[in-house]
Amino acid sequence: MIQSYSPVTKTLHWLTALLMLSAFPLGLLANNAPFATSDEIASKALLFSLHKTIGVAAFLTALTRILWALTQTPPADLHPDRRLETFAAHLVHWLLYISMLLVPLTGWINHAASTGFAPIWWPFGQSLPLVPKSETVSALFSAGHWVFTKILLAAVALHIAGALKHAFIDRDETLRRMLPGKTPATAATNRSRAPMLAATALYSAAIALGVWLGQPDAQTDAKQLASVNSDWTVTDGALALTVTQFGSEVSGSFTDWTADISFDPATGTGTTDVNVNIASLSLGSVTAQALGPDFFDATNHHTAHFKATIAPQGDHFAATGTLTLKGKEHPLTLPFTLDITDGTALMAGQVTLNRLDFGIGETLPDETTLKYPVAINISLTASQ
């Protein structure tokens, strides 16, 4: 004969419930919060940081609760004769156990794999071992987090409904066994593994659904830039940018751009004409925000254009010209290094832009949310 659940079990149960039920509305509010102005972005980031931080705390608490439960013998079922009801109750418990781990864990991995918005307020929270910074990984676990959250919501609702039924219809000791104080002793019994196997099967299907939802789109609606005829043909390259949001660097890149390059190695002079497909930007978890009307406004401004002359500048080179971005023109000098061997050129350059020069983020007139400087890094390999 054993008493009701131990004080440690009860404390972990109600603490887990408190954290989970706090994370749900915070996540909903954060997802639906607007982010058009500086204050709105700050509020949205605050909600997401609260949601993520509580989620990590919930994961650690749930893990502790489950490990503790493995060392305990639970009270016996009060109505073992009600086989279907008992099976359903244990199935819901197993779904809760699995969900309490997988829901926050998938959210945490999604955060660790992405770059950008809303940090976790834990000293160890931003990265995880064996989790790379990858949009594919982030999308996969984001989809899993979405699917598993629905299972957790359903399991919580059924769990609460069952507890209320026992309290107000059956009027038995089921709910009181998890409340402070002692209840009459009950015998321990061996429990069937069928509910655990059923919960595992349901979650296997949910994982498959999450993997399917997390697959990248096979096609994109963004039109690709047409290839250009150039004296030097770019065979490989990267056009990257780094912004600083809420004190953290967020890096991304444009995947579709062209460069028409005319260059004479003998004199070190030439010209370049670069076009960038704005819709090809990838900037971690803030990509959609960056492409929106307050920032790059990809819908109305499809391309950026940099036309410049190339000339030696000390021990390196510089492309000096005009950058047109979001309908605004601004003079720009891009210093770069150049190494030409056997008709193959390796070029690397970096320049810092002020986002306000191009009307980007004008609703964020100070640097509290988004810093003014934007670092641009370009590297390419070209053959003559």
TrEMBL record:
Cited InterPro entries: Cyt_b561_bac/Ni-Hgenase (IPR011577), Cytochrome_b561_oxidase (IPR052168), Di-haem_cyt_TM (IPR016174), Lipid/polyisoprenoid-bd_YceI (IPR007372), TTHA0802/YceI-like_sf (IPR036761)
Any one Gene Ontology molecular-function term assigned to this protein's record: heme binding
GO cellular component: plasma membrane
Residue stretches spanning the membrane: 12-30, 50-70, 91-109, 147-168, 196-214
Protein's membrane topology: Multi-pass membrane protein
Compartments in which it is found: Cell membrane
Keyword line: Cell membrane, Electron transport, Heme, Iron, Membrane, Metal-binding, Transmembrane, Transmembrane helix, Transport
Span of domain Lipid/polyisoprenoid-binding YceI-like: 231-383
UniProt keyword Thylakoid present: no
Cofactor needs: heme b
Protein's GO biological process: respiratory electron transport chain
The organism's place on the tree of life at top rank: Bacteria
PANTHER family: CYTOCHROME B561, CYTOCHROME B561 HOMOLOG 2
Family designation: Belongs to the cytochrome b561 family.
Protein name: Cytochrome
Native source organism of the sequence: Profundibacter amoris
